[in-house]
Amino acid sequence: MATTTNPNTTSGPVWDxxxxxxxxxxxxxxxxxxxxxxxxxxxxxxxxxxxxAVGAAGAIGHTVSTLRxxxxxxxxxxxxxxxxxxAGWTTWAMASGPLTWTAIGSLAVLGVGIGTAARSTSxxxxxxxxxxxxxADRQVAAELSAERRTLAAEWVERIQRVSGVTITVLxxxxxxxxxxxxxxxxLPGATTYDxxxxxxxxxxxxxxxxxxxTVAATPGIHQGRVLIDVSTVNVLAGEIPYxxxxxxxxxxxxxxxxxxxxxxxxxVYLRExxxxxxxxxxxxxxxxxxxxxxxxxxxxxxLTWVIDxxxxxxxxxxxxxxxxxxxxxxxxxxxGIDWLASTPEEAELMxxxxxxxxxxxxxxYQDLMAKADTDLLPVSAQIPQIMILVDEGAEILASNDPxxxxxxxxxxxVIRLLRAMGIRTVxxxxxxxxxxxxxxxxxxxxxxxxxLTGGExxxxxxSKVFPGSRGLKxxxxxxxxxxxxxxxxxxxxxxxxxxxxxxxIADIVHATSTxxxxxxxxxAKAAGPAYARRWDTxxxxxxxxxxxxxxxxxxxxxxxxxxxxxxxxxxxxxxxPSPAAPATDEDALAARFMAQIDAEFGTTEExxxxxxxxxxxxxxxxxxxxxxxxxxxxxxxxxxxAGAEGTGASAIARALAEEHxxxxxxxxxxLKEWAEEGIAVRxxxxxxxxxxxxxxxxxxxxxx
Length: 704
Description:
The chain has 704 residues and is an alpha/beta fold. The chain has helices at 23-44, 48-68, 73-96, 101-163, 194-197, 200-206, 285-298, 316-319, 344-364, 366-372, 393-398, 402-417, 434-437, 440-445, 462-465, 502-511, 521-527, 529-532, 537-540, 585-601, 620-641, 649-660, 664-677; strands at 168-174, 180-186, 215-219, 225-231, 255-260, 265-268, 275-278, 302-307, 339-341, 385-390, 423-429, 448-452, 482-487, 490-496, 680-683, 690-693.
């Protein structure tokens, strides 16, 4: 009967034949080897001197190898004496007999002595090695200490000279990224950290730091301490690709939005906070919005809704990779965002849904919040937070257009009512001006703030974005994608946004498809059909259309538009007999011009030649209309350039006098029309009347 055994089952001790000898096994190996050699040599008549010669050779060889290993003299003596003593005993035993009690006893004593000496030497070598390591560490520490002392003295003197503050440096920590260091210092008397923070630019210049490197002072462990971050390597200049790590994230552990000037990631916590992102055209704001959406897509407890009234461009890259040819979501891949609105109507539908969901959550989850002993809804993958990103949302809040004002009211209602129920917003804006940031609700709730400057100075008032912070200047971040970020957890400071490409967005959509949560059942019921049918083909058809039907140019291939009774005909401008076959380049140009005119105004049959005495067709009125339109646009530009201070009719008329010859009375008429239409806001009366463009109006008192 055959039996099977488990090959992995072993019994008895397991020998590691590749391991080196220790004090016991070394001594045992040496003594048993000497006994075997002596017994064999005595039995065969081997000359005893051979054993002595072998021992001498072994002693010489081990001495050389030990010296090459740079071991101590004690180890050299032990190894050489062990060979010589073993060889001497073997030679004596071969001559007098190895199997006598005297020979065996002396060999045992020799083995014990060798083992004891080996153990002692091993301990000595370990202690010696530790001492050498400790000595090297002390030397490095001494060098670092000397460098830190030099840095400390340098910066104490610099801060005293520039800011008039004498600090006491307690510690200097080099950043792991090797891009700068932090000084922990004690402030004298009643001095506060902002007395150093306000001189950030001057200290940076005095230290001759590279462009993009700054000196930033922030509060220390208590109010009498200051932390001074000094960046010495410019990490803002070049592009930093978005990390290829698409691992799951959580709202509670922070979402990375870029890197600080010290190379560390910037985590943002949005469970209770809204966010505001400011960036002019060309600053990298759109790219940063995609970085924000990438963090949301990787989060397992966030559903992302996007409102972008500019053809939905902020959200389309996150949707299209997950749609099939008919515009329906693929079964294998879910869109990177949960809902996209590109029109005021769809945006209003989305905001109404958010309000219904939030108010329903307040009722249906009372037991859950009581069980968790909290007044905040416990957000998780089962009950996800809804983050609504509104592209140029701050401009919507400042707009006077009736549709936009209606949307603005709903956005503010979401911000005001739904914090505890896990519905928050991220608003973007084109500029850091009073018109954009004048809303108290935005300033109070959007505590996570980003300002991408790209070196732009106009309209970048950082004191409005980060009130109370000193020493921040747009010139410190003159690179695309660079700017300032501040959160309740970290003081405002320089940072760099990652660069994310459309191809990488598609990769993230596919990689994170299984991470997206589903809207919890009570919230889905409250959301109703408006949410359930958000991916219906009829509502996503625009996503598959490159040019909307109402914006497609008319087909000109069939020739000029048909004649329209009573229309205007300028066919006298044609120089060729037929527009379909122009004879010269000038005729071709005239034919194309006439096709455009005919399509715009219609045509009539070519009139008969006019009598010589009768005047021809006069188009001066049309030309005058064009001139007046250009002058009106120039006046609007002057009003916009006047900023929040505004200007008057006389000043605008003087600005237009040389080029357009516009009178003050004409400008007064335009200003009244603009005030009625909401384009301009009238402030003051009588001789103090001035007008402010609605973009710069902060909502103060105005007179119609």
